[in-house]
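thought: fold this chain, then report.
action: predict
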Amino acid sequence: MTDTARTSPVTLHDVAREAGVSLATASRSLNGSTRNVKAANRERVLEAAERLGYSANASAQAVARGTTTTVALLVGDIADPYFSSIAAGVVGAAEDHHLVVTMAETRRDTAREVEMVRALRGQRPRAIILAASRRLGDPHAAALAEELAKYEAGGGRVVFISTVDAPFRMLHVDNAGGAQALGSELAAMGYREVAILAGPGDGAEVMPLRTSEDRLTGFREGLASHGVDVPASRVISTAFTRDGGYEGMQQLIGTFGSDLGGIDLVFAVNDVMAVGAMSAARDAGLVPGRDVAVAGFDDIPTLRDVTPRLTTASLPLERVGEEALALALAEEPGSPALLEAEVAIRESTPGR
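observation:
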């Protein structure tokens, strides 16, 4: 007589009965408990689980252990190569620790971020890494800090890839210092008439990003060290995206004319904006690197296919992800880590 196909999931009780051991022994064998289990019993349990097709209940294990083998990574924009490169670093490092990474997109919406953290608390990941840029004057910052504090009280670890005004582990990226070094070197190369495509500013519908503000400030300071000033009319607030860069360059062309009114360098506060700006320049009949120099920040992998090659402040993005996970898993965080950006001068800024 053929057995009727099973319609309910195999349980731990089924495995224990099949192996001829107690429920406690079956649980310890499958969950890697440090309590002693005879090798013969462990082998019988594993064989029974394989034979029955048993899959452990991760939620139940999380309740029992207080944590899971997962790491949660929150990014601002999953399509942005900046975040995907950081994610690659987190995932690669997680494999070395037999951890699984789950990733979610905040869309740079801080209210959405708070809701995500609240939901993650119930899933009990080993760590939560927040890679999305912080916003200045964010009204949701206190609520986020409260949710994260509750999560850490339950045994989890929080790491920000950013500088925050909260008592959590932070991986600092030297956005201001990297931008200052880039501005100083470009000014030394002879660039004097400069425009900047910044992220959303105080006059935009959304709050400014700390990352873009730090890069804007640092770049202007680097130029100023060589006597170069950027008037407010040449600082364009636009979205922190490729389309934002495209629209920002269009605005410059619309304001200063098809020859950009003598502007010889456009700096975008991230690479995807710089790529958009170069596309807008081409569409207006300008040749990037010849008619106008363009520079960015991050050194995303996409730049390998961009012509002319883009001058940028280069960040070791995968290493950022690796360091973030290491910081999350460290028993003692030690001194705050700082990752510096290195200036990479390429064909998009040939000099004056």
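thought: worth noting. The chain has twelve helices and twelve strands.
final: tokens above.
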